[in-house]
Amino acid sequence: MKRRLFISRLLGIVLGLLGPLSGRLRGSPAGNAATPKRFGMGIQIDKCIGCGRCVDACKEENAVPQEPFYFRTWIERYSVKADGDTIVQNIDERITPPREVEVDRDVLRSFFVPKLCNQCENPPCVQVCPVGATFATPEGIVLVDDKRCIGCRYCIQACPYGARYLHPVKKTADKCTFCYHRVTKGMLPACVEVCPTQARVFGDLSSTASPLTRFRRMNKTAVLKPHLNTEPRVYYSDLDGEVR
Amino acid sequence: MANGLRGLPDSFLRVLVVFLVLIVAVIVIGGALPTEFKDHSRHVQATIAREAALPIRFAGSTECGTCHDEARLKQIGYHRNLSCETCHGAAKAHTENPVEVKPAAPRKRESCATCHHFDPSRPTGFAQINPVMHFPRQACISCHDPHQAQPPSVPEECSACHAEIARTKAVSPHALLECTECHTVPAEHKVAPRITRASIPTERGFCGKCHDKDTATLQPPKIDINTHGEKYLCWQCHYPHMPEVR
After folding, report:
1. Does residue B155 have a cis peptide bond before it, meaning omega lies within 30 degrees of 0?
2. What are all long-range contacts of B96-102, with beta carbons under 8 Å and residues at least 24 apart?
3. So what's the ipTM on this one?
């Protein structure tokens, strides 16, 4: 009688343990079946006219403060001089007055480079966050939990691309989200939507038919600061060696 | 046990109590608390849900054509690839309430100049004007229809887009030569400038028509076209648009 009781209890324990375990086993393949999209952006520098409409659209769509120095995306003017100097300027009219139409003869070449969060595969900002407030979504987009963020600015220091800023009202770190609320509904990020010359291309890296995959097939692309092994998902074509 | 503890100093007992409380707290938090209290993924899910629910302000380019014929008309001009919202601004509110909320209709020169004022950093081939010189104080839309932006007509045919080249060429020895003297420009170049390109001289003899020592013209510098510069084309060393042509 004792043995029978023991065996029935043992059976009960084993079944009880197997129950949740089998549920987990059944759950896992279903999670993998729908491969999440991997979003990325392509930027064709030769097409950027530096009009700044992407910056304005970003500020409007994402309620970024209008004051200068708060940017989720911004445009830099690179002026490479004959003596080897390179001048980099944020061309936003809130910071820099519009340039005169005169051609500076000292400048060898000059061009615009749109910048934004590179949505790195190995994001340094996520590593350094002391409270785990920033993380990458399954789509590879790095987000900030503004209810967890303590505003310590460590991530702002850690980002090699200067893509983060401290929101002056919320006092938390803020950054480009690839317009997460738009792209998850199948829309384009606001900056890509308004770019008049299609200098920005957005798409799913894991799809062979996406505009971004086509962009990467047709152009020789490079990423910013590849030596840092952050593996950015913003791909530049016609990237000048002077761009940092 | 109790007797043994009683023998210890009072301060030690107090520390012991604190340690016991700490140990119990660690065990309770580590083992007894339900996992979802400590699970980071809940915060992640909450943030993702919050981000995904943010309001949309730009409706997207496909939205406009459902009501507006202009969106289809626009397809023949230079602005065919522009989103309506590039000029008219965020219009999600307009799609939700078309009668009361109207998107902006920019009519000032400044709004066109945002893209089209001359800037040397802009890629050559992009249509640019100097707002001070180019028909000052007149609204752009009195001559140009932004929904059917067309290639510019003579005499500003080339300089409209190639402003920087036109400026340097105007003070160069080649100032009096028409662009078409050296470049053959297919009609499609004006419609799809990046796909169909203008030609550049492909043989040395072309420059030699004026610059060879055997030619009759007096003015231009002369060289022996057969020996000077060896295997290179002239413009691979000399930039004909520059004042110095070096």
Report:
1. yes
2. B98/B67
3. 0.79
Local structure of B128: helix, strand or coil? coil
The secondary structure of residue B82, as a DSSP letter, is S
The model's confidence at residue A31, banded by pLDDT at 50, 70 and 90, is very low
pLDDT at residue A227, rounded to an integer: 95
Select from A193, A200, A219, A240 the residue whose CB has the most chain B CBs within 10 Å, as the one to mutate to test that interface. Answer: A193
CA distance A2 to chain B (A): 32
- Chain A's closest residue to B242, CA to CA, is A105
How near does any CA of chain B get to the CA of A180, in Å? Answer: 6
All domains in chain A, ordered by first residue: 39-121+173-237 (3.30.70.20), 124-166 (3.30.70.20)
Residue B86 pLDDT > 60, yes or no?
yes
A148 interface with B at CB cutoff 8 Å: yes
Please name the residue of chain A whose CA is at the shortest distance from the CA of residue B243: A105
Beta-carbon separation of A61 and B168 below 8 A: no
Burial class for A128, CB neighbours closer than 10 Å (0-12, 13-18, 19+)? middle
Best to test chain B binding among A24, A37, A51 (most B CBs inside 10 Å): A51
- According to DSSP, the residues that pair with A134 across neighbouring strands are A144
Question: Quick check: A193 and B60 CB within 8 A?
Answer: yes
Number of A:B CB contacts under 8 A?
116
- Closest residue of chain A to B126, computed from CA coordinates: A49
Question: Quick one: pLDDT band at residue A84, thresholds 50, 70, 90?
Answer: confident
- Alpha carbon dihedral B236, A108, A221, A51, in 10-degree steps, equals -120
Q: Contact B58/A61, CB-based, under 8 Å?
A: yes
Check residue B3 and give its pLDDT: 67
Query: Cα separations (Å) of A13 from A3, A20, A219, B149?
Result: 15, 12, 61, 77
A173 in reach of chain B (CB within 8 A) = no
Percent share of chain A, pLDDT over 70: 86
Judge whether residue B225 has pLDDT over 70.
Answer: yes
Element (H, E) at A135: strand A134-136
Q: Please state, in angstroms and rounded to a whole number, the distance separating the CA atoms of residues B95 and B61.
A: 12
**Interval B145-182: pLDDT, tens:** 888 877 656 556 788 788 778 888 888 888 888 888 89
pTM of the model: 0.77
pLDDT of residue A32: 46
Chain A residue with CA closest to B46: the answer is: A145
- Determine the residue type at A215: F
With tokens 């001359």, the residue in question is B118
